[in-house]
Structure formats: structure tokens, C-alpha cells
Write a structure and sequence with these properties.
The chain has 5 helices and 7 strands, in the order E-H-E-H-E-E-H-H-E-E-E-H. By secondary structure, it is an alpha/beta fold. The protein has a 7-stranded mixed sheet.
Length: 143
């Protein structure tokens, strides 16, 4: 499913809708260029999960953990280039901790990305507009 958001607020709102139905052990794999709006979407997901903290990108610490109606792991792989570095984080353990994982730069996971992960790709259309492609499993739940 392709969706078009025309502002950061609309991107956050889409994230809220997604976060509202996510369940423990679900994984969302986000891809998109730098500045495409991945963190903006994740801020909405966090709100939909009931996270009260302000969500920022964990670019330098790699993984932030938040409490909402479920544990929420925000993972940012931007600074990591080698799959072995990612594996050394013990990232696969996060996928089975009963929380919800949303991963920025998920393409860097390679074979470590579980087959069950839902995929969202964000493309910049213009300064404010984003095309957001949501995999079928998530898309069906958005309707």
C-alpha cells in the first residue's frame, strides 16, 4: 500500500495509527534515505503505543528503550556498516523480548532481519511530502 503524507504532522499521525495496533514481538523494518522521515514516523508509532517520553533517534547509542503499553525498542543502524557489528549488539535478542522493535536503516540487517518483519519504505517526494510504502500485513490492519 502506498500512502502520501503532506506534512510531518501527517507522518506522525500515520505512525500513531500503526502504533495503536502493534502487538508484542512485532518488528517493523524502516528504510529510506537520510532525512526521509523515519524518526518522525517512529515518534507517531511511540505515541500510538502510549509512550510518554519524547522519542529521539538513537543514532549514537543505537538502541533506545521506552515503556508504553508494551516495551518499545527504537533501533537505529545508521552508524553501523557491517552485519557482524550488528550481530555483536545481540540485536536478535531484542526480537524475542516481548516488546515491539522499530528499526531504522533495517536494510543493514541483511539475513538477521526476521522474515516476519513488516516493512515500511519512506521516500521523499518534496520538502513536505512523503510516499510511504507499507507491506501488505501492516496495510491490511491500517484499513
Amino acid at each position: 500500500m502506498k500512502l502520501l503524507t503532506k506534512s510531518a504532522e501527517e507522518t506522525v499521525e500515520l505512525g500513531r495509527k500503526i502504533g495503536a495496533f502493534l502487538l508484542p514481538n512485532e518488528i517493523i523494518a524502516l528504510t529510506g534515505t537520510l532525512g526521509a522521515g523515519k524518526t518522525t514516523l517512529i515518534q507517531g508509532v511511540a505515541e500510538g503505543l502510549g509512550v510518554k517520553d519524547y522519542v529521539t533517534s538513537p543514532t549514537f547509542i543505537i538502541i533506545n528503550e521506552y515503556q508504553g503499553r508494551s516495551l518499545f525498542y527504537h533501533i537505529d543502524l545508521y552508524r553501523l556498516d557491517d552485519v557482524s557489528q550488528i550481530a555483536d549488539l545481540g540485536i536478535e535478542e531484542y526480537f524475542q523480548r516481548g516488546g515491539i522493535c522499530v528499526i531504522e536503516w533495517a536494510e543493514k540487517l541483511g539475513a538477521l532481519l526476521p522474515q516476519t518483519a513488516a516493512k515500511i519504505e519512506i521516500k521523499t517526494v518534496s520538502e513536505n511530502e512523503r510516499e510511504i510504502c507499507v507491506s501488505s500485513g501492516l496495510a491490511a490492519r491500517l484499513k
